[in-house]
Amino acid sequence: IVLDSVMARRIRAKARLKRDPIIIPPWPHEDVIKRSETRGMKFRKKYGLEDKFIFMYSGNHSWVHPLDTILEASKIVESRSDIVFLFVGGGVEKEKIEEAIRRGAQNIISLPYQSLDNLGETLAAADVHFVVMGNDMVGIVHPCKIYGAMAAGRPILAITPDESHIAEIIDKYKVGMRFRHGDASGVADCILKLAEMNREEIIKMGENSLNTIKKEFSQEILVKKFLSIIEDSIVSSI
Q1: Do the beta carbons of residue 58 and residue 145 sit within 8 Å?
Q2: What is the predicted pLDDT for the residue at 32?
Q3: 3-class DSSP state for residue 159?
Q4: Disulfide check for 105: which of 100, 116, 175, 191 has CB 3.0–4.6 Å away?
């Protein structure tokens, strides 16, 4: 069992298999995410962000998810005081965020990891979620943060190579937009367009994300698939 199609191709190329890998991605913490009573407004009020358009990166700030393109885009749109880049979590890439703030970035906020109980409120506070996949990590790492963002009913703005599971999800289910690493100007233009977009359009994009989770990536669906594979394997071995 592997997490995505690119990982399946990598495994097939490196191992002699009796059968093709079966793809089952991780599922989001749906029950926790649904607990948000204010849909992020409590979180926004806590940090004085009620009237801001928030682009959030939430989770592990790892070197396998390089944030350089997002930071370059933040410089391009820094004159827009209504746009905020909110980085929640920790990791080695966090130092880049902190350094940008030390150098005077006014549109970047850095927060530590939030408690699991507060996950739904945190994720719902964003208007759009960043998801990043490093070029050299395709088929090795599977950033599950995309499912949490989608379960919170938010659109995705991805920085990813064309051949990746994130690109596949965005292209197939129309849950957001994607750009290659280094295309800071393209990301900045997209950020400005999203910030100017009618609120109903943003909500509709987010609903598409949530509906995709319900139909394709929910815990109920994926656990049943996983158990079915285990049961079939046991039966076939008897």
Answers
A1: yes
A2: 84
A3: strand
A4: 100
DSSP class of residue 114 equals P
Tokens linked to 50: 């009620």
**Are residues 191 and 211 in contact, defined by beta-carbon separation less than 8 angstroms?**
no
CA distance 137 to 89: 20
Per-residue model confidence as pLDDT tens digits over 83-104: 999 999 999 999 999 999 999 9
Question: Can you give the length of the chain in residues?
Answer: 238
Residue 67 carries which side chain, given as an amino acid letter?
Answer: L
C-alpha R_g of the chain: 19
Place of tokens 């089952």: 24
3-state secondary structure of 197: coil
For residue 132, give the nearest of 105, 108, 164, 110 by alpha carbon.
164
Q: Which tens digits make up the pLDDT trace of 189-208?
A: 999 999 999 888 998 999 99
